[in-house]
C-alpha cells in the first residue's frame, strides 16, 4: 500500500500545482501519517503549507475551532467534527486551498456498537471562487491499528485527488 500512497502523494502535488493551490491537514487518528506521506515527496514544500495533529478534543477546539457543541452532540469521531476540522485548518492556513481532516477509532480498543473499531471520518474543505466547499464521508476499515491508519491515509489522498481532478 505504501507504493500507492506515494503515487497518490505525487498526484495530489501535481494537481495542486496545476490548480495553483496549497494543502493543509488536520489529523487525529492518523497522528501525522497523512502529513508524513505528503512531505515524503521531494518538492512538497511547493504545495504543502502546514498540518495539525489534534488528538484530544481540547486540541480540536483550541487549534481548529471545532465547536464544543459539535463534539458533545456527535462525538470526536463523526463527520460533523471532521468537517469542522477541515474548515478550521483551512481558516488557520490562509495560503491553503485544500484541507484534509481525519478522525477515527484505529483500535484495538475504543469501539462501540455505533462506532466500531476501524471507523474513520474524513473532512475535505476547499476554497473556490464561490467560497468554501466542504465534504465529509465515513468509512470502516478492516485490520489492525496500523492497517486502519494506512488505509485512512490512502483513502484521504485518493478522495482528494478525485475531487481536484473533477474540476
TrEMBL record:
Protein name (database record): Nicotinamide-nucleotide amidohydrolase family protein
Matching SUPFAM superfamilies: CinA-like
Pfam families from the UniProt entry: CinA (PF02464)
Keyword Hydrolase tagged: yes
Key word Hydrolase present: yes
Domain of life: Bacteria
Originating organism: Sheuella amnicola
UniProt domain CinA C-terminal: residue ranges: 7-159
Keywords: Hydrolase
GO molecular function annotation: hydrolase activity
Amino acid at each position: 500500500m505504501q507504493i500507492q500512497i506515494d503515487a497518490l502523494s505525487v498526484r495530489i502535488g501535481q494537481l495542486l500545482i496545476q490548480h495553483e493551490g496549497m494543502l493543509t491537514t488536520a489529523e487525529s487518528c492518523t497522528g501525522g501519517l497523512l502529513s508524513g506521506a505528503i512531505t515524503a515527496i521531494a518538492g512538497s514544500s511547493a504545495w504543502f503549507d502546514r498540518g495539525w495533529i489534534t488528538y484530544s478534543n481540547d486540541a480540536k477546539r483550541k487549534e481548529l475551532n471545532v465547536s464544543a457543541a459539535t463534539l458533545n452532540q456527535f462525538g470526536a469521531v463523526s463527520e460533523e467534527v471532521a468537517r469542522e476540522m477541515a474548515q478550521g485548518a483551512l481558516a488557520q492556513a490562509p495560503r491553503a486551498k485544500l484541507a484534509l481532516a481525519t478522525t477515527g477509532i484505529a483500535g484495538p480498543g475504543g469501539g462501540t456498537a455505533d462506532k466500531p473499531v476501524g471507523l474513520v471520518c474524513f473532512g475535505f474543505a476547499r476554497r473556490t471562487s464561490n467560497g468554501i466547499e466542504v465534504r465529509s464521508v465515513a468509512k470502516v476499515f478492516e485490520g489492525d491499528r496500523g492497517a486502519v491508519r494506512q488505509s485512512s491515509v490512502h483513502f484521504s489522498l485518493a478522495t482528494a485527488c478525485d475531487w481536484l481532478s473533477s474540476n
